Amino acid sequence: MDYSRNKRLQPRDEIAADCLLEFGVELLRKHGVPDRHARTVSTELLESDLWNQAGHGFHRLPYYLSELSKGEVKPRGRLRREIDSGLFLRVASDNFGQVAARQAIDLACERVGQAGACLMGWRRFHHIGRAGAWVWRAAERGLAAILFVNTWGVPRVRPYGGISPVFGTSPIAFALPGAQHPQMIDFSGAAMVEGKIRKRKNRGQPLPPGCVVDSKGHPTLDPRVIYRHRGRGSIRALGGDAAEWKGSALLAAMDLFAGLLTETGYADGSNVQGDAQRVSRNGALLIAFPVDAFVRPTRLHHEMQQYMAYVKAALTATAGQQVRFPGEEGFRLRQQRLAKNRVPIDPTVRRRLEKLGRERGVAWERR
Fold first, then answer.
1. Does the pTM of the predicted model rise above 0.90?
2. 272 and 154, same domain (yes or no)
3. What's the total number of domains in the chain?
4. Containing domain of residue 63, as a range?
5. Are 169 and 297 in contact, with CB atoms under 8 Å apart?
6. Does residue 120 share a domain with residue 97?
């Protein structure tokens, strides 16, 4: 397949959002997942697709079910407190990452009420999905929240000056409570997240320039190179040619604070067997505290609105172009898709899900 030039995107498939949600719930239940946990996982997968972060969306469900069948996820697993000392906590869980993360955030919010703040480590959670989902949940309760996340699994990102991958595509997320809804910023230290690369691989589409290098460090548009067992390429860190070292430094910080500090580890490939990753794990460090410890919430909301207007008023190079505040576009798409009850889904992902549904007698979309 020729990846040397950009191609027009194939038409996207769509499905009713509520049908996709219930399909996920029922399919997970058929695999022995309790209803409340099945609904949590399916809801968070749908939210990722709604927010245009399909790399954490329903494309993950077949992998989750495979890990579940191998006993690598325990759908009745409980959140365990490994360290509990005042405002400091460290927790672990064998349940789905979304279930564990929701429980951890709720515990952290409770601890803020008791101790005034919370610093919480998450040790080797199953894949937690969007980091922004969890700081958003804390901000809905009036808290400022920062979440550092690392990846224990297959390394995907090269360090500055190197050509072989050593980092995961680790994200960081921030959220503050707002007047109508939280203001959330969530991004990875990689030039492009793995889920979006996989999506282009599935659709036979090239990558944007400057995101990936092959095993010899040469730029490539071929998304397949980062999935090769031998001669595997790497994703570049954020920053481009002039400042890739900054993205590399950010990813190293994620491993130090979310990986080593929580005793999760880092993406050294130790959980890889042959061509397959055994199971994706995340370490995280959560910082949460009430905003009214520093400023009245109403004043913060007012100044946030002024600040966002100031940023968006910046001059643009193209007439009619609009500056968007970080996180604004994802929220706009979510609201738009919810209003229409339609969510885009990759045709390859749809075929896989339909097959899984047929195997378990779960209907796909009821139009």
1. yes
2. yes
3. 2
4. 15-76+342-367
5. no
6. yes
Query: Amino acid letter at 175?
Result: A
**What is the pLDDT, as a whole number, of residue 278?**
52
> How are strands ordered across the β-sheet holding 88-92?
80-85, 88-92, 118-126, 281-290, 143-152, 171-176, 183-188
Q: What is the pLDDT of residue 7?
A: 41
Q: What is the pLDDT of residues 252-275, one digit of tens each?
A: 999 999 999 999 999 886 654 444
Cα dihedral value 247, 253, 259, 265, nearest 10? 70
Task: Centre a 10 Å sphere on the Cβ of residue 181 and count the other Cβ atoms it contains.
Answer: 12
The conformation of residue 252, written as its DSSP 8-state character, comes to H
Average pLDDT over residues 141-156: 93
For residue 320, pLDDT beyond 90: no
- 85 and 62 both lie in a single domain: no
Three-class HEC string of 302-356: HHHHHHHHHHHCCCCCCCCCCCCCCCHHHHHHHHHHHHHCEEEECHHHHHHHHHH
Sign of the C-alpha dihedral, residues 359, 364, 366, 367?
negative
CATH number for the domain including 157?
Answer: 3.30.1370.60
**For residue 80, what are the CA distances in angstroms to 73, 77, 91, 296, 357?**
15, 9, 5, 35, 33
Q: Is 214 exposed, middle or buried (0-12, 13-18, 19+ CB in 10 A)?
A: middle
207-262: pLDDT as tens digits: 999 999 999 999 999 999 998 877 889 999 999 999 999 999 999 999 999 999 99
333 domain-assigned: no
Sort 162 into a burial class: Cβ within 10 Å, 0-12 / 13-18 / 19+: middle
**DSSP 8-state code for residue 190:** B
Angle, CA 197 vertex, CA 345 and CA 131 arms, to 5°: 75
| 121 strand-pairing partners | 90, 285
Question: What is the pLDDT, as a whole number, of residue 348?
Answer: 87
Cα 211–Cα 282–Cα 56 angle in degrees, nearest 5: 55
Strands 118-126, 88-92: pairing is parallel
